[in-house]
Design a protein that fits this description.
seven-stranded mixed β-sheet; six-stranded parallel β-sheet
């Protein structure tokens, strides 16, 4: 538990997006008050994700007419609801991207956020975290040790916890051969985590030379250009003809799906992480799956995944200190969004500091 924090102010600065007009601006809004089972967090840093950009650009339809974007954040507890016993002002925490609904059978039975069947997501069901303060359920927080900077904890809340969850979905085992298509913020951390799990070989694939170079530095054994016409034969060669045990597709388009499927070995698993604008083009490829190969989709993560990666960083097993490209003040959010657009799938994370 950290030092006692002062009473939160009546108003705060928050980024607001109007779906109808497309206006994105910094506004003075009331500071939210936590309900009985909720916690108010003073945000120390919040991340800009490609999904945030897609919602603002209209590629993903927002559910709310006006809202505060953002779903990755870490900070310090500012206030706790009347029923909260675990958290107190001053505690350092990272927010999981989902509140339990409180209405499904699991929630009515007293289960935590990991068992909720209808998670309420920031910037989808309620205001997000691009603000000085954010409120969430008490079960959607993970403690952050003093040794971990809150900026690094913010990176864990999306760019690391999601690929960590994907590794569990894939049932990855040591010495299995792995391919990673797409080396943006998620894919590059998947490479790190696969190395930590003992995968071998780890093959990273991206059209960008800088991304391939970064992947080699993060633990990939090989980094290849997916545009290479001899890609399939090359991967078969470096895996002694067996093919890959697991392929992670962070691109999600027909071309990446087809390539990954073609180099899977017997009983290989293809994990499509997230969604894509043209992922439907890949559907016909399912007809040619063979030899007990499987395809599974993976989205997001559980609170326990976030707890695990915080523990890995805290014990020095995982290093994300080089994963932050820049930290901008909240007032420069438009600049941050433009940088994400121009560097589609930025290799390093861009953060905002309220």
């Amino acid at each position: 538990m950290g030092p006692t924090a002062g009473k939160p102010p009546a108003t705060m600065q928050a980024v607001r997006f109007d779906r109808a007009t497309g206006e994105l601006r910094l506004a003075e809004v009331p500071t939210p008050a936590p309900a009985a089972g909720e916690v108010l967090v003073k945000v120390a840093a919040c991340g800009i994700c490609q999904s945030d950009v897609r919602r603002i650009d209209g590629e993903i339809e927002p559910r709310l007419a006006r809202y505060t974007p953002g779903h990755e954040a870490a900070g310090v507890v500012a206030a706790a609801g009347s029923r909260v016993r675990r958290w107190a002002p001053g505690d350092r925490v990272v927010l999981a991207a989902g509140r339990q609904c409180g209405e499904c059978a699991a929630c009515r039975g007293g289960a935590g956020a990991d068992s909720c069947t209808d998670l309420r997501l920031p910037a989808t069901h309620h205001d997000g975290v691009w603000a000085e303060y954010a409120v969430t359920s008490e079960t959607a927080l993970v403690p952050v040790p003093d040794a971990i900077p809150l900026e690094q904890a913010t990176v864990l809340s999306g760019a690391v916890a999601t690929p960590y969850g994907a590794i569990e979905t894939a049932r990855l085992r040591p010495a299995e051969g792995v391919g990673v298509w797409g080396l943006g913020g998620l894919g590059i951390h998947l490479v790190q985590l696969a190395r930590l799990c003992g995968a071998s070989p780890i093959i990273a694939l991206d059209i960008r030379p800088a991304a391939r170079e970064l992947a080699l530095g993060r633990g990939a054994d090989l980094a290849l250009d997916p545009a290479n016409t001899r890609l399939e034969s090359y991967i078969r060669g470096v895996t002694d003809g067996r093919g890959l045990d697991v392929a992670f597709d962070f691109v999600g388009r027909a071309c990446s799906f087809g390539q990954a499927r073609a180099v899977l070995g017997d009983r290989g698993r293809l994990v499509v992480v997230g969604t894509s604008l043209d992922v439907g083009e890949a559907v016909p490829e399912f007809a040619s799956m063979r030899h007990d190969q499987t395809v599974v989709a993976h989205t997001g993560y559980r609170v326990r995944h976030l707890e695990d990666v915080v523990g890995l960083v805290g014990r020095g097993r995982l290093d994300v200190s080089a994963s932050i490209g820049a930290v901008l003040p909240l007032a420069r959010v438009a600049e941050g969004l433009q940088r994400m657009r121009e560097r589609d799938g930025d290799l390093l994370r861009l953060l905002l500091r309220p």
